[in-house]
UniProtKB/TrEMBL annotation:
<protein>
    <submittedName>
        <fullName>Unsaturated rhamnogalacturonyl hydrolase</fullName>
    </submittedName>
</protein>
<keyword id="KW-0378">Hydrolase</keyword>
<dbReference type="GO" id="GO:0005975">
    <property type="term" value="P:carbohydrate metabolic process"/>
</dbReference>
<dbReference type="InterPro" id="IPR010905">
    <property type="entry name" value="Glyco_hydro_88"/>
</dbReference>
<dbReference type="Pfam" id="PF07470">
    <property type="entry name" value="Glyco_hydro_88"/>
</dbReference>
<dbReference type="InterPro" id="IPR052043">
    <property type="entry name" value="PolySaccharide_Degr_Enz"/>
</dbReference>
<dbReference type="GO" id="GO:0016787">
    <property type="term" value="F:hydrolase activity"/>
</dbReference>
<dbReference type="InterPro" id="IPR008928">
    <property type="entry name" value="6-hairpin_glycosidase_sf"/>
</dbReference>
<dbReference type="InterPro" id="IPR012341">
    <property type="entry name" value="6hp_glycosidase-like_sf"/>
</dbReference>
Amino acid sequence: MSRIYGRTGNEKIYDSIYDYANRKIDEDGSIQTYRSADYNLDMIKSGHVIFWLHRQHPEPRFKMAMDSLHKQLKGQPTTSQGGYWHKKRYPNQMWMDGLYMAEPFHTKYAITLWKETRRTKYCKDGQPLSYDKIPDFEDYGLGCFLLAGSEVYKMD
């Protein structure tokens, strides 16, 4: 919706985005329905619109909400290869959709909010960049990996 607003300038669209965030993000930056202890990458996706809103209408609560999401990623459980678990309740499962939820947010956070030396170290170290942590299921004789990543099937 933020892209549509950017193209049209329709204030009703902006108002709708802001109103939703206004109802979901408290003054202390708490995000209603969000529990960091769940370590759920689905919740990180909301961080993209919070970034956008923070640029449009800077409010401390938006920055605090982004900090909470980033803190989750710092503690997010990982596979033995270092890729993020999709959710705490799915131990050792790395889902493809988690990549577009977590990595873009984490990278945007680093580029936007960290000082230059820390950004350089982040990019140099490749932290955490789960893209290269996805197992190559062909190595295991498996012919198909469903994109959701929740199940693996052997194809004959």
